[in-house]
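Protein modeling request. Please complete all fields; requests missing the sequence field cannot be processed.
Requester role: graduate student
Desired output: 3D structure, token encoding
Chains: 1
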Amino acid sequence: MKDTEKRVDDEAPEAVAEEAGAVNDDAAAEVEADEPVAEQDTEQDTEQEAGDEAVSERADESAEEPAAEAAEEIEDAIAADLDKARTEAALYLDDLRRLQADFDNYRKRTLREQTARSASASQALVARLLPVLDNFELAVSAAEQSRDFDRMLKGVEMVLGALREVLEGEGLVKIEAEGKPFDPERHEAVIAVEQEDAEPGTILDIVRAGYELGGKVLRPAMVKVAK
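Delivered output (227 residues):
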């Protein structure tokens, strides 16, 4: 009986050990069986990420292509506008240069014409004054020969009349002053005197005659004014 119990006791640890070993083997097998599944999941994740990256890259490329085309079109439009603006600026510059040249030619031509008109007017005036000069010379020569004051005075009066006629023909007009109210635009007061029978501001006498030419005061008349 004791031997039988001893054998049973000896066999029990061995059985327990065998069962533990079997359990360990099953766990290892399960671990080994799980490892390929984990590796397979990792590979699938990697492939999925690679696919996503490829799709993202293709999407980025697809988005970049229209943007690049739009930017290129904008650059072409800007370049075209710039060329057009340069062409218009060149045309405007040419027009300005031609206008400036035309204005310079017009100014020079006008100056020449004015100079020619002035010279022609001076020649015409001098030509009309030559007979007056001739009459002065004749009057002086006659006075020297005859010593006749009356004849000399008559000759001078004739020359003076001729001179006035020439100047009046050129538009010269004597300014009326004596007995007129003083006008500061046409008269120049050189002295003011008291006179009972004259109103203040009335011109009493002419010291030097004044003249108008073409409706404009050429020289104001110097006068005496009552105060």
